User: Fold this.
Amino acid sequence: MTSRVMQPVFRSKSANSPAFLFACLLAEGLVKAGVEKDSVYLLGDIETFKRAMSALTAAGTDLNTAPDTPRQRKSKEHK
Assistant:
């Protein structure tokens, strides 16, 4: 597979979005480089990813990395 398989997910979005998502999946080990061709990728180790995410969830890890919006910051200041 290639990043082109991600294109239907990103209709009317940036042309770079499918490749960016694919790079994220690669970084997390959900896809891995194929050995026959440089541009071909294979399904990675999904079970290891699931176990890692389950461990983070069980530990109560806050996975929200989005920055606070101005409204959220103002709300926190008034508490």
